[in-house]
């Protein structure tokens, strides 16, 4: 399917690896020029070179933590008028509720709620004026299904979801959409570390997959293709939605 976004400009946050890279690759395949971002300069450079080589698109690198204002400014300087924004950032590490202090809570809220809101504020008016915009926020299945130890991440991402629910409706008439993708168990470095490196890889994956109806882990590549569809011209009538990408793990008829 031609997604109709060839030549569009996209900012993809935290995209040197994992789900962010999967989204960047799918958008590059669709013909988008990219600004990619990550904290590891070497890994980011390798990702950018790979995407340029495979898809022949323009890929600009911005190194740093997207939660920092100076890194956000660098992203926007590299792409002042993006057509597509994919918000993504790592969540706080697993931590018992009793061990959280005020700063840890605030840091998590900044990373997973405040940062995407700030970036949306910076780009949404331009999207409205141009009559096209696609904003996709990578949140987490924990917005629906709380995961013990990831309370800050769950709370911050749920806050982002509620914050944007009304805003999405105010720009829909301008062909600007805001949607959220909620990853479940996907084959990323973060998930693979869940059972520790002492367990054989095959056994780790089998345990992680056991309670998933699809009986496997999802891949960053297929997650990216879903993201790219949400960014396409075909998805203009779909906004303000939360879409689990979880192999059927979230059980609900509605």
Brief account:
With 254 residues, the protein is of the alpha/beta class.
CA-CA gap between termini:
28 Å
CATH class: Alpha Beta
What proportion of the residues form beta strands (DSSP E)?
Answer: 5-15%
* Main sheet strand line-up: 3-2-1-4-5-6-7
Examine the coordinates and then state which fold CATH places here, giving the name of the CATH topology: Rossmann fold
CATH architectural type: 3-Layer(aba) Sandwich
The helix fraction, in percent, is 40-55%
Outline, from the CA principal axes? globular
Number of DSSP strands? 7
Task: Please count the helical segments.
Answer: 8
H-E string: EHEHEHEHEHEHHHE
Query: What's the name of the CATH homologous superfamily?
Result: NAD(P)-binding Rossmann-like Domain
Radius of gyration: 17 Å
Q: Please tell me the overall pLDDT.
A: 95
SSE class = alpha/beta
Explain how this protein is built.
The chain has 254 residues and is α/β, with parallel strands linked by helices. The protein has helices spanning 18-29, 41-55, 69-78, 102-130, 151-171, 189-192, 201-209, 220-230, and strands at residues 9-12, 33-38, 59-63, 84-87, 133-138, 176-183, 242-245. The chain has one domain (9-185, 219-243): Rossmann fold (3-Layer(aba) Sandwich). Helices cover 44% and strands 15% of the residues. A seven-stranded parallel sheet has the order 3-2-1-4-5-6-7, with helices on both faces. β1, α1 (18-29) and β2 (33-38) form a beta-alpha-beta unit. The model has no long low-confidence stretch (mean pLDDT 95).
Topology:
Layout: E1 9-12, H1 18-29, E2 33-38, H2 41-55, E3 59-63, H3 69-78, E4 84-87, H4 102-130, E5 133-138, H5 151-171, E6 176-183, H6 189-192, H7 201-209, H8 220-230, E7 242-245
Parallel strand pairs: 1-2, 1-4, 2-3, 4-5, 5-6, 6-7
